[in-house]
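User: I'm curious what two different proteins look like when written out as structure tokens. Can you demonstrate?

Assistant: Sure. I'll show them one after the other, since each token string lines up with its own sequence. Here's the first protein:
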Amino acid sequence: MQENIAAFGGDPSQVTIFGESAGAGSVSFHLTSPRSYDASPKLFRAAAMESGSPGTPWNAMNMSYVEYRLSLVAEYVGCLNADNTTDVDCLRSKPSEDLYKARSQIEAPFLRWAPAIDGVELTDEPYNLLAQNEIADVPVLFGSNADEGTMFVDLDYDATEAEYESYIIELMGKEIGEKVIVEYPYSYYNEAFENKKGGHGGFWAAARACGDGFFTCPARRTARGFANKSKAYLYFFNHTLDILRLTHDDGVLGLGYQHMGAFHGSELPFVFSLELALVDESEEDLSLAMGKFWSTFAQKTVPSLDDPAVAWDSYSTENDSNMNLATPIDSALFNNEGLKSDKCDFWDTIQVEPWSIFGQI
């Protein structure tokens, strides 16, 4: 990028790196890898992330996991030697389709793969490097969606209380799982809450626990880390796509309005103004506002709108501020303070184990 951006009319001194989900994990890698953020000349001056940040527990896997995963793939495609070492030349000779099929055979609660903590490009878990203040000194824009967990929870929509508790214990382990069950009780999520109609308490308790624990609260932790070095702009996307009202939970798409909520990735049509997914004027207005926020951040490292009445406050531990992104924008676009503070205080006491993300070795 540094060598070629000028050919496209770009300025190599004004690069903003940007990613969503796994892409946000890749950006997190750059923000915590000295070989990237301390490079000379400087490789990037700002970073934007959606649904991912250095504080998340799923950004990277240690070498034990990497080597174990490699052996599983090698065994599946016939490239595992008798002494259980991997024949790399054999792997390189295999069609990509075979390697993809091998990957699909690996079972994991959350993710099958992540970048390796190799001791060279990445020296530790990104969340540890964040806690040690070993991070890039650049402005960052990032956040999460209200219902991140709905796409990841492997639990039936009609799960019972017992099924919910069993799922959480299996996912988190007995000690942490029991704490999560107390913090996210089935009874609360089985009643009407927020814009949810009630019922399906097991699914929603699990979805909120995973959404908070794997996305939203790590984002707050990340904001607190970066606020000590540079400017951090935190958001919370809290709008359910209106197009989901045209579907139903048992429909062909399987994407019900009540079932999915503001799900993982549902902010993308707004950032990129994907008009086919935007149903009405209020959604188009939100898309224009988000596009403006993102583009001005890339241009000036400060997200802003033409309307001076809507100023996105940078994060500090004192204001604990995030930009609420929802419709209608004249009343739902505002700096919100103390987002999920009780839940995030809880998750700050929890260390999610690698096997909760990648499975057992």
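Here's a second, unrelated protein for contrast:
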Amino acid sequence: MKKILLFLLILLLFTANGCKQTASEYFEKGNVKCKLGDYQGALIDYNNALKINYKYADAYYYRGLAKIQIGDYKSAIIDFNNAIRINPNDAVCIRKKGGAKYKIGAFQVVYFTSQVPDETNKEADSLTKMGDKKLDAQDLKGALSDYTEAIKLNPLKEFFAYYSRGVIKSILGDYPSSIEDYNLAIYIDPHTSITYCNRGYSKARLNDLRGAISDFDTAIEHDPGEGTSYYNRGLAKYLLGDKNSACLDLSKAGELGVKEAYERIKEFCQ
């Protein structure tokens, strides 16, 4: 079952983005491109896999490897951190992260460690996983309850619970509350681009287009290979009357694999 993870703006309305291929299919396509040396193409496929399943540890790990190949060590470390957060005992990933940190001379302790969680953390993680399953099954009320209970147990570390609860609140139209959850998720992990992108979506739904653009800017800074952020920023700029800049963003989104961007270019930029 596909997860609703990253929101895409369509025309002048705001709706959730869907993907025809599965996360595993995008992941395998990315692996093939890596073997062929097409690292930029692989990044697009790994990005698409993570849009569908943002807890896909292998996709974070292999995207990190691809980023190392193009010299983007800082961004690779963020991907390895995400993979380790999902699989705390992945020794190979921990070593790769250390290698990337060595390349940039960064030996400081990162926020998310590889320590095994205590019993409270395990219970919170279990509740978050239960919430994920209910979200997959479209049981939004049940998932919301599980994420809330996980947050009560571990309010300072449950990034995924805050993020997923924000997604559900956005689906339900509670945009102010979804922004609050995204704010807390960003406090825990300020480096994950999709959180900024989805917070920008919620701001756009509240007609805070400039605030939305600021979030899309930040999302792009953290992950310049994610086309959805360019697409959303382009539409927000278009709504503010900045047509030329909007069309540049839509063109970039198309290059990064967002097919809807070319439809919008035909409508807005011809």
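A detail about the second structure: The longest strand covers residues 7-10.
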